[in-house]
Write a structure and sequence with these properties.
mainly beta, five-stranded antiparallel β-sheet, four-stranded antiparallel β-sheet, 3 helices, globular
């Protein structure tokens, strides 16, 4: 179900909105813009960024076009429009990721190791200065999580938690800030919120979960670091399966 949803072009466009200021690549369709881009994304496993992985473009003859993922699993490579195959090495575990790069979006075609996911794909002109990000380094829930009786205590039983790559601004009213920047559908009842350093934790009324339901948690750009960076609009999809509390 998640895979079918992910591959639906309408849903993917919703989850990966085009940011006009970072994606003038649409002009390349008219021969007016760049033809190469910084192609970027996060390599994740069970909701945690995979750091220290080596990512390169298959068949590339440029030995410098190699990326080592940071603490958020973020990689950045210079690529061009078309199909791009990435070769990934995580401490000796090797696999490939196939992407489709267009002037408007970067989409996942396939990943040969299902233990890993690719998150927050995007592109910016390669002529631009190196872009830095405020990223999620780990979260609960995470993209693709399926919650059931068997794993409830090990996953969302204590609420939702998020770790970011930088120290966050401290909101004057954490609960109001949470309601404005963590939007969930269908709705859940959130309780107390804690924001400190690069961590956000808030409780969830477990009685408001709906079994056999897909949830979409949207993180808004109002989540900012003290250095002034905003998180890119990010949607985390998870499912509540057979759950009887």
């Amino acid at each position: 179900m998640f895979q079918n949803c992910y591959l639906n072009p309408f849903v993917y466009d919703l989850l990966n909105p085009v940011e006009k200021e970072e994606n003038p690549a649409a002009l390349s369709l008219l021969g007016l813009g760049p033809t190469t881009f910084y192609v970027t994304g996060q390599l994740m496993v069970a909701g945690t960024g995979v750091s220290g992985a080596t990512v390169r473009i298959s068949g590339s003859t440029d030995p410098t076009n190699v990326s080592t993922t940071d603490s958020a699993g973020r990689f950045k490579l210079i690529g061009s429009i078309g199909t791009m195959t990435l070769e990934v090495d995580v401490s000796g575990t090797k696999f490939t990721i196939e992407l489709s790069v267009t002037p408007l979006a970067v989409t996942l075609i396939s990943i040969s190791n299902s233990s890993f996911t690719v998150f927050n794909l995007g592109a910016s002109p390669s002529s631009a200065s190196d872009v830095t990000y405020l990223d999620i380094t780990s979260s609960m829930p995470y993209e693709g999580l399926i919650v059931s009786n068997g794993n409830y205590m090990a996953t969302v039983s204590s609420g939702f938690s998020f770790n970011f790559s930088e120290t966050l601004e401290s909101p004057s009213n954490p609960d109001t800030w949470r309601d404005e920047n963590f939007i969930i559908f269908p709705s859940l009842t959130f309780l107390s919120t804690s924001v400190g350093g690069n961590n956000v934790i808030f409780q969830v009324n477990s009685g408001t979960y709906l079994p056999e339901t897909d949830y979409y948690l949207t993180l808004q750009p109002g989540i900012k670091s003290v250095s002034g960076k905003s998180i890119k609009l990010t949607i985390i999809r998870f499912r509540i399966g057979a759950l009887y509390l």
